[in-house]
Amino acid sequence: MLTEPVLAAQYGTRVATIDDVAAMALELPGVTEDERHGNRTWFVARKAFAWERPFSKADVRRFGDQAPPEGPILAVRVADLSEKEAVLAANPGACFTIPHFDGYSAILIQLPKISGTALREAITDGWLACAPPALADKYADKYADKDFGS
């Protein structure tokens, strides 16, 4: 079930926050939250699948005269580089990558620009990319008939 803040984000009355991310991630089986490099990170089976990703000084320099996307920014794992390209193409206003992520199966999400539904889907897909197969299969069987877009 979507939380009230996420529902509000879906309808454009407020943007998603890192707390919304935490609520979505922690609803998934086997998820723990901890800090990594000083940022909130969500794990399944000790694998990070989503994390806060502020820009480093080197990242900011790479943007040159262009302003970096405004945050908060969330990094989320994807299954592979093909899925990464598909997600980036499907969500060009909210999802992006940076040179630091070249060759790495993860995307960056500008939380102020993503709908609640798309955010939940990205988090769930990141979880599926990192969850042990038995846990992922159990989750898929349980939720196969649910419509999360309504």
Topology record:
Elements lengths: L3 H7 L7 H9 L4 E6 L2 E6 L2 E6 L4 H6 L10 E5 L3 H10 L4 E2 L9 E5 L5 H15 L2 H11 L7
Antiparallel strand pairs: 1-2, 2-3, 3-4, 4-6, 5-6
Task: Offer a few descriptive terms.
single chain; 150 residues; alpha+beta; Aspartate Aminotransferase, domain 1; 6-stranded antiparallel β-sheet; 39% helix; 20% strand; globular
Short structural description:
With 150 residues, the chain is an alpha+beta fold. 39% of the residues lie in helices and 20% in strands.
Structure commentary:
The chain has six helices and six strands; from the N terminus they run ααβββαβαββαα. It has 150 residues and is of the alpha+beta class. It has one domain: Aspartate Aminotransferase, domain 1 (Alpha-Beta Complex). It has a six-stranded antiparallel beta sheet. The longest helix has 15 residues, at 116-130. The N and C termini lie close together (10 Å).
Secondary structure class reads alpha+beta
Order of helices and strands: HHEEEHEHEEHH
Number of helices: 6
**Strand neighbour order, sheet with most strands:** 1-2-3-4-6-5
Q: What global shape is seen? A: globular
Q: Please bin the fraction of helical residues.
A: 25-40%
User: What would the CATH topology be?
Assistant: Aspartate Aminotransferase, domain 1
Give the count of structural domains.
1
Question: Residue ranges: pLDDT <50 for 5 or more in a row?
Answer: 1-11
Radius of gyration: 15 Å
Distance between the termini: 10 Å
Mean pLDDT score, rounded?
A: 88
Instruction: Report the CATH C-level class.
Output: Alpha Beta
Just name the CATH architecture.
Answer: Alpha-Beta Complex
Range of strand content: 15-25%
Tell me the total number of β-strands. 6
Largest sheet: 6 strands, antiparallel
